[in-house]
């Protein structure tokens, strides 16, 4: 009789704690969902941290691709330039690499065997360099 009451009391205490935890978890999920909806409606899909990281990586990328062509220090871009940049992009600019990878790489078998993921990444990087050139106030 005494044991049954203790077990029932323990169960009731645990059940109450469980309900509080579930309620807290539900409230946190609801707050996060509300934040995401509000954030999405504002038109900004990136968090402040992501925007800051992307801005930093874009500056790094500009440094990487500034090899002296505009200044006239070199007249030809080395053939291996884009291959080397793509190899280093994941380490130096992981967010940009991830964005490019998400946009252009697929798991599907391509009928065109020459259009490898590496070729796709080089093409995406060329396009990104074009965007950097458009953004530059020094572009002619």
Mean pLDDT: 81
Q: How much strand? A: under 5%
By helix and strand content, what is the structural category? mainly alpha
Bulk shape: elongated
Order of helices and strands: HHHHH
Q: Determine Rg (CA atoms, Å).
A: 26 Å
Straight-line N-to-C gap: 91 Å
Low-confidence segments, given as residue ranges, are none
Largest sheet: none
Number of helices: 5
* Strand element count: 0
Helix content: over 70%
Chain-wise SSE layout:
Blueprint: H1 2-41, H2 48-65, H3 81-92, H4 94-104, H5 117-135
Helix pairs in contact: 3-4, 4-5
Word description of this protein:
- The chain is mainly alpha-helical.
- The chain is built from five helices and no strands.
- Helix 4 (94-104) crosses helix 5 (117-135).
- The longest helix is centred in the first third of the chain and has 40 residues, at 2-41.
- The chain starts with a helix and ends in a 5-residue tail after the last helix.
Which descriptors would you attach to this protein?
single chain, 140 residues, mainly alpha, 71% helix, 0% strand
Compact summary:
The protein has helices at 2-41, 48-65, 81-92, 94-104, 117-135. It is mainly α.
